[in-house]
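WARN no homologs supplied; continuing
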Amino acid sequence: MSDLVGYLERVTQAASIEAVWAELCDGMARHGFDRLMYGFTRFRTAQSFGSPEDFLVLTNHDHAYADRFLNERVYLDAPMVRWATENDGACSWSWIDTHRDHLTLAERKVVEFNRNMGVNAGYSISFPAQSNRAKGGLSLTGRAGMTQAEVDAVWRAEGRELHQMATVAHLKIITLPYSGSRRPLTARQRSVLEWVGDGKTTQDIATILGLTSATVEKHLRLAREALDVETTAQAVLKASFQNQIFVLRN
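OK structure emitted
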């Protein structure tokens, strides 16, 4: 219990996504899950997860696996990713075998790819979301040599604790700033977007910050480019989703 309390304290007090991720990886490794992959999006639609540039993806898998799984978009046909988009909670990868007759050819190829890469025993967690467009999930791969039966035994004994460790880390991560694969906003870009979000005009912002209107417009344009959006309203919304504005900073 003291180890769990210590973990929860470190995660809830962490100031960066990297710090939370390190705690989660260390904590799960102590229970036999030494390879993790976490994904989160706020831009899901009925047809897709949104642009990959807007994903938040964290993993400690080796590059040989992660680069192919992510960059070649293998995840789009991964059976456990499908399960995670349709469900909340935790699920053993034994689900794949019990539903094998219902897997598509593309999904079976992903199963074979995973097994060839030593990713063949584990558990997946799908986190509940308040928005239909948001989704987060975590895959936990058992250390090399573990069978699915051994993974399931660990989960029966410790799954409740592991599920809560993952959930607290997820809830912390989605409160922290991230910028996707594009460049983060500068302090000035964050500032002008925050004032726009407060309903101020360009001239208002120029007066408040002691700038010219042209300089404010420049910062807004650069913010739109950094966030890959067309309008300032979209920039405010997206930056807010990514916790890049309206957050306390040291």
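The radius of gyration is 21 Å.
OK
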